[in-house]
Amino acid sequence: MLEARLEQADLLKKVVDAIKDLVQDCNFDCNDSGVALQAMDNSHVALVSMMLKAESFSPYRCDRNVALGVNLTSLTKVLRAAQNEDILTLKAEDAPDVLNLVFENTDSDRLSEYDLKLMDIDQEHLGIPDTEYAATISLPSVEFRRICVDLMALSESVSIETSKDGIKFSCAGDIGNGAVTLRPNTNVEKPDQNVEIELTEPVALTFSLKYLVNFCKAAGLSKTVKLCLSNEVPLLVEYALAGSSYLRFYLAPKIGD
Amino acid sequence: TSQQARLEGFFKPI
């Protein structure tokens, strides 16, 4: 059986909220190392890869590998019943029809129990190779969100160019052009505000802003976001979670002249 | 104009 207890329901609520507009039905693959999810959007342009490591739960028990096929809209309805600070426990049998969710508020001695019906999902899995990216940029997640939202007002696409001097986001639209350049900067007192650039070669790629703005719904999960780029490979956008868990998004580039 | 690539062009199904 599976039994996984999260100190705060907040984490799962935010993760599901961040991905539910991108992917609808997906398997939560549970094994002794944790709970993983990989799913592509309908157009096969963006991919979500989530890993909640066993260490992120306390306790965590998973006797047999089990795939929990979940409709995220339905899961959202159930998670709405959990307060952010509730203790959340996920439970499932070895061959489950339902996922049992328990929310506990230790202050008020309230215990809520929900069973979510599971579904059989035949999910395509993609092998994601380990990649040495040409450019890795770390920046505040709210800054990245602001840039994507601002540029989307002008255009559907953004060009991202990185050099040792900085990272430039630019777009061209019917009403005009826009560009935001961030230079590396270190703030000792507020390390969350740092912009860090590691570069082995310059990169220039174009991406759909609609997807990037969607990824930015995860900004509440982490104060910083990591962008990993290499020419002509999908962009990796990573939100690191506590206990080396993560929420990653991959986005195929736009290719052409 | 540029064309949107799909993920399968980069990642192989397993």
Characterize this entry briefly.
The complex is a heterodimer of chains A (about 260) and B (about 15). With about 260 residues, chain A is mostly beta strands.
Task: Tell me roughly what share of residues is in helical segments of chain A.
Answer: 10-25%
Specify the overall morphology of chain B.
Answer: rod-shaped
**Most extensive chain interface and residues per partner:** A-B, 24 and 14 residues
Q: DSSP helix count of chain A? A: 4
Number of strands of chain A: 20
Radius of gyration of chain A: 20 Å
From the spread of the alpha carbons, the general shape of chain A counts as globular
Structure class of chain A: mainly beta
The percent range for strand residues of chain B is 35-45%
> What distance separates the N and C termini of chain B?
32 Å
Mean pLDDT of chain A: 96
Strand-residue proportion of chain A: over 45%
Structure description:
- The complex is a heterodimer of chains A (257) and B (14).
- With 257 residues, chain A is mostly beta strands.
- Chain A is built from 4 helices and 20 strands.
- In chain A, a hairpin with a 5-residue loop joins strand 18 and strand 19.
- Chain B is an all-beta fold.
- Chain B is built from no helices and 2 strands.
- The radius of gyration of chain B is 9 Å and the shape is rod-shaped.
- Chain A binds chain B through residues 40, 43-47, 124-129, 157, 206, 208, 233-234, 250, 252-257, and chain B through 1-14.
